[in-house]
Amino acid sequence: MTHASDLDALGFAIVPQVLDQTACEALHDLLGDADGAGTRGMLHLPEVMRLAQSLLVDLVRPHLPAQPIPVRGIYFDKRLETNWLVAWHQDLTLALKERVEVPGFGPWSVKEGVPHVQPPVSLLEQMLSIRLHLDDADSTNGALRVLPGTHRLGRLNADAIRSCRETREEVLCEAKTGDVLLMRPLLLHASSRSTSERRRRVLHIEFAGFDLPAPLDWHERAGPLYARAAIG
Question: Can you give the pTM of this predicted structure?
């Protein structure tokens, strides 16, 4: 109930110790170093898909209107060689197999060869992201910063984002290795450059509580549910 209350009012919640140190180290070995700031297409790895469809989906299921579908995975790896900042933004796009014009979906863009589209806000409100921390994250190595409650404001333009920054107090989402941050895509969030030599690795997985209208299809479409992942 605490998580549900936090997600509704704030747009985020932290679930401690979802994975133990051994499981996190197994993911370190599997994922290695990210390509640049981050590697997309993580759900194409069977081990990641199994984790998403077993242990992680249990965290998401109570907060979506239908059976959660894992639809996108990104591995972020902030380290000395790839140290970046992320400006305040909302997660507004879906990664799809191909571009097909459907009413209510647009504009379109292409990221690393993959078509992305902005869906209706009503669909974004039926999504939830998980950020699984594979390292401790704090103010020195780029922990996520959020503006609580902004997930309830719909899609925001640049002026509205600027106003939120001026009128709302940001929260730093500190986390320990193995903790999970649940986050609504419409929540305004950002991260600073790291000032530490410590890495900040995060496995980011997005879940949808709806099916796409035909003929649209997810770029990282999930197959049948796997058995529970041994890594969890």
Answer: 0.93
Q: Where are the domains of the chain?
A: 2-208
pLDDT in tens, 20-62: 999 999 999 999 998 877 899 999 999 999 999 999 999 999 9
**Which amino acid belongs to residue 113?**
G
Burial class (CB in 10 A: 0-12, 13-18, 19+), 113: exposed
Quick one: tokens of 170?
Answer: 């940001």
pLDDT digits (tens, 9 = 90+) for 64-73: 999 999 999 9
At 111, list the tokens: 């990221």
Q: Regarding beta strands 127-133 and 94-95, do their DSSP bridges make them parallel or antiparallel, or are they unpaired? A: unpaired
Name the DSSP letter for residue 33: S
pLDDT at site 223: 55
Q: ∠ CA 96-43-115 to the nearest 5 degrees?
A: 20
Plot region of 61 (φ>0 → left; ψ -120 to 50 → alpha; else → beta): alpha
Burial 30-63 (b: 16+ CB within 10 A, else e): ebeebeeebbbbbbebebbbbbbbbbbbebbeeb
Dist CA 138 CA 145 (whole Å): 10
The one-letter code for the residue type at 105 is F
Task: From residue 36, give the alpha-carbon distance in Å to each of 39, 147, 179.
Answer: 7, 27, 24
Q: How many CA atoms lie within 13 A of 228 on its CB side?
A: 4
Are 176 and 136 contacting, i.e. CB atoms less than 8 angstroms apart?
Answer: yes
Q: What is the CATH number of domain 2-208?
A: 2.60.120.620
DSSP-derived letter for residue 222 is -
DSSP letter at 42 equals: G
